[in-house]
Amino acid sequence: MTNSPTGGPGNGQQTLVAPSILAADFAFLARDIAAVPSADWLHIDVMDAHFVPNLSFGLPIATAVQPHTDKHLDVHLMIADPQRWAKDYADFDSVTFHLEAVDSLAAARELAAQLRASGTLAGISVKPDTPVDPLLDHLADFDLVLVMSVEPGFGGQKFRPEVLGKVRALRERIDRDGLATLIEIDGGIGAETAAQAAAAGVDVYVAGSSVFGAPDPDAAVQQIRQAAVQAQ
Predict the structure, then answer these.
(1) Is 93 among the catalytic positions?
(2) Annotated binding-site residue? 76
(3) Is 74 a catalytic residue?
(4) 115-164 pLDDT, tens digit each
């Protein structure tokens, strides 16, 4: 596993495409993972049917992915009580939990510190209607900020462009302070919306159905990356 974000202080905006295995065929995960060799990361959505209304999978399925790839495995915990469960995923490359699932920003910073001490990158995620303003003075405490561009819980939703204001605010603060914190976006991402997100300052593009629902998943990954690079 990797122990540092791609890039570093002052390195500026990155372009990383992270196909979400939530949109893959669960009966053939190894096959579908192999179908996206151009991916930079693989995104693993864990849902508990409490924090979000859907149930996906937990640690056993996530762990089953590990022997089949050497890519950065990016876990997104859409679960209640992440303080209890997040550290179980510390063997993955990055673990992101939701700001809305903890009691306070102080609790989020404490959990992020625990994850980092366990050897993984720590991410914080916000739903479309949650502001990022409280995070702006504490971005150094997180390795990535995941901005949801749909309501979390289901794939295939339409991209909400109004969240890009949060991306711009994050990009400005990260660049101003010379931080390595990455900005990730998840929800309704394809080539067109990746271009919009890139122009706002996103580093990591999570794409599910637009990749694994495409006739050629790897070509879809490359199209997303190309659109993002051209829009930066």
Answers:
(1) no
(2) yes
(3) no
(4) 999 999 999 999 999 999 999 999 999 999 999 999 877 666 789 999 99
Measured distance CA(190)–CA(220) in Å, rounded: 8
**Is the Cβ–Cβ distance between 183 and 170 less than 8 Å?**
yes
Q: Which domains does the chain have, with CATH numbers?
A: 16-231 (3.20.20.70)
Measure the CA–CA gap between 75 and 193, rounded to whole angstroms: 22
Q: What is the pTM of this model?
A: 0.93
Q: Is 154 annotated as a binding residue?
A: yes
Query: Helical H runs in the chain?
Result: 29-34, 59-65, 82-85, 105-117, 164-177, 191-200, 209-212, 217-231
Check the annotation: does 188 bind a ligand: yes
Cβ neighbours of residue 117 under 8 Å, at least 6 residues apart?
A: none
* Residues constituting the chain: 232
Two tokens at 218? Answer: 């790897």
| 129 φ, ψ (degrees, to nearest 5) | -95, 5
Helices 191-200 & 217-231, crossing angle to 10 degrees? 30
Structure tokens at 38: 């151009």
